């Protein structure tokens, strides 16, 4: 295989969040792996407080790289995805955050940087969808953003915004549970107008609306059990619990029914026959389509892949099909791609 070190372009860019990742250790892993694959010294780009990764992704594209390694948490990954969406450059994930949700949904290594780098350099990849949203602010201003996993309005966004960052460092994703326990007693339903593309408009009172590109959360919880990351559609969950007992039904639905029973034929039969299962469906309604428009009664918080995007009065979501190529395990690739690793 041709030695890429003869080329002027670096071939690989590493976009790293220095707050989340041990940069020196990561360099010690990436450098020899890149040399073994025949690449020149990677282009190293660190995120900043003012730029979570979008600008670094643009710099990597301008440098002509063929592979970007994104090292950090869900916010860093989302920013790099936003910058690479629609390009032919492959993305490799080096997870280093609390949720690491995109890596979880793609069954990528969560705790071994060396294993994650090996997969990124291995050559196997697949095209995935990216969520796209136009946010409408109070006063009419609009902005466009991307997300890899899911977006949330209502109590979901309030929990993300109020989660203690120090607690996240010490107990991980359980910090979200603590924030949820504080938010639930104060949560009140609010009206939302929604309209799937090509369908009629509806008005409902909700506690949360979630829009997902894929559906697996921490702890093996399947929020969207039928979601696929490459189907060209978004999955929507409308949560309408009534009081604390209603939230217990929500937990039963996502933790027991979605994450356990729906995985087996006998479990699905139990769900069809169970009166309790039918009652739990009253708390969550699932929708699916290529896009959905939401209109709110007043400004409310929204989050994208855990990032607080502030308050909006409306949002227009759509799926951007097959708009990102991502490095995966060989068995997960939809087609065989030439491996990057060089031979003799």
TrEMBL record:
SUPFAM superfamilies: NAD kinase/diacylglycerol kinase-like (SSF111331). Its cofactor is Mg(2+). Residues 7-137 form the DAGKc domain. GO terms for biological process: phospholipid biosynthetic process. Gene3D superfamilies: 2.60.200.40, Probable inorganic polyphosphate/atp-NAD kinase, domain 1 (3.40.50.10330). Keywords: ATP-binding, Kinase, Lipid biosynthesis, Lipid metabolism, Nucleotide-binding, Phospholipid biosynthesis, Phospholipid metabolism, Transferase. GO terms for molecular function: ATP binding; kinase activity. The keyword ATP-binding applies. InterPro entries: ATP-NAD_kinase_N (IPR017438), Diacylglycerol_kinase_cat_dom (IPR001206), Lipid_Phosphate_FormReg (IPR050187), NAD/diacylglycerol_kinase_sf (IPR016064), YegS/DAGK_C (IPR045540). Belongs to the diacylglycerol/lipid kinase family. This is Conserved protein with diacylglycerol kinase catalytic domain.
């Amino acid at each position: 295989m041709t030695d890429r070190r003869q080329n002027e372009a670096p071939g690989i860019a590493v976009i790293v969040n220095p707050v989340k990742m041990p940069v020196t250790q990561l360099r010690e892993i990436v450098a020899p792996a890149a040399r073994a694959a025949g690449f020149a010294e990677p282009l190293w780009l660190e995120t900043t407080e003012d730029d979570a990764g979008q600008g670094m992704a643009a710099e990597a594209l301008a440098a002509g790289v063929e592979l970007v390694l994104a090292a950090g948490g869900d916010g860093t990954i989302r920013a790099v995805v936003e910058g690479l969406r629609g390009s032919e450059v492959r993305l490799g994930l080096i997870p280093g955050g609390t949720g690491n949700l995109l890596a979880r949904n793609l069954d990528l290594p969560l705790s071994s940087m060396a294993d994650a780098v090996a997969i990124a350099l291995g050559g196997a990849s697949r095209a995935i969808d990216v969520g796209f949203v136009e946010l409408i602010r109070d006063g009419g201003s609009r902005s466009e953003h991307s997300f890899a996993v899911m977006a949330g309005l209502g109590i979901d966004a309030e929990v993300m915004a109020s989660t203690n960052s120090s607690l996240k460092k010490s107990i991980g994703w359980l910090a979200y549970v603590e924030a949820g326990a504080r938010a639930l007693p104060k949560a009140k339903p609010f009206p939302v107008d929604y309209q799937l593309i090509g369908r009629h408009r509806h008005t409902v009172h909700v506690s949360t609306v979630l829009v997902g590109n894929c559906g697996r959360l921490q702890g093996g919880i399947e929020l969207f059990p039928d979601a696929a990351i490459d189907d060209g559609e978004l999955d929507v969950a409308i949560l309408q619990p009534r009081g604390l007992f209603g939230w217990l039904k929500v937990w039963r639905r996502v933790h027991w029914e979605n994450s356990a029973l729906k995985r087996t034929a006998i479990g699905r039969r139990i769900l069809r026959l169970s009166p309790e299962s039918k009652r739990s469906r009253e708390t969550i309604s699932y929708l699916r389509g290529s896009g959905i428009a939401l209109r709110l009664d007043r400004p409310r918080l929204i989050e994208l892949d855990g990032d607080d995007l502030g308050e909006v009065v409306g949002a227009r979501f759509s799926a951007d099909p097959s708009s990102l190529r991502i490095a995966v395990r060989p068995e997960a690739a939809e087609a065989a791609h030439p491996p990057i690793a060089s031979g003799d």
